[in-house]
Amino acid sequence: MSAGRFAPSPSGDLHVGNLRTALLAWLWARRSGRDFLIRVEDLDRVRPGAEQQQLSDLRAIGLDWDGPVERQSRRRNRYDAAVARLQDAGRVYECFCTRREILEAPTAPHHPPGSYPGTCRGLSAAERDDRRTERPAALRLRAAVAVFAIEDEIHGTYEGPVDDFVLRRGDGVPAYNLAVVVDDADQGIDQVVRGDDLLSSAPRQALLATLLGTAPPTYAHVPLALNRAGQRLAKRDGAVTLAELAARDIDAFELIAGSLGLAGTTPTELLRTFDPARLPAEPWVFDPPRQC
Ligand code: GLU
Predict the structure, then answer these.
(1) 6 alpha carbon to ligand 1 midpoint, in Å?
(2) Catalytic positions, please?
(3) Per-residue model confidence as pLDDT tens digits over 177-187
């Protein structure tokens, strides 16, 4: 199977920027004859009712999807199995560092602040026993490489830093980077279209896919929506959700299609003229209408 996907976190309402990314993921998948799947990333940050609202907003802009909606909370055994495989391959170690210790430690050259410097990589069994009495361990990947390259339809070959990133948090919750990779592989997803805020995570995820024996997907990290001040669009910017725009008589679909340089009233109509090569390369600046 060959599929694309949209994978929202049910932490609140989708705004026009999220809906625009969802529409792009749909267009990319359908244009290439792929299935389109929805996966709810509900391991963390769940707001009651948000999932239903998100799905209803996706439907309202005319998106359809194949098969039932998948939820990460149902897939814990798959993440555990992937960690166990990596453990068997000697690629996992326990880490007892606090966030603060990591930020205060010197990072390896060319790695961004917050990258894991490998503090717990070489702990002895006795040291680990000792540290376990202080706090539960997170599990980290022994990455063994400092950079990894991915193929991106917008950014070309993109090589980015990779550190010994977390696979399972100290509280036992599977880390986002692990869950995404396991899900994409299990669901036959070979095309990932999402916001370019996640471009720097892609090398980690592609490395992990490779270590788990699957080919990384092809990526397209699309420009985000920004507010007038040039910051990432957020709910606090005002009229940005479907309901808020509808209350001001603004057709969100038309607005989004226009921002992509496309004309049409349904996603299927947009497919006729959608061409990834002609997608605006710049972020979409959206100035939410003010309440009169
Ligand atoms: N759940 C993530 C988000 O809402 C997206 C993850 C992904 O597309 O890989 O930001």
Answers:
(1) 8
(2) 235
(3) 999 999 999 99
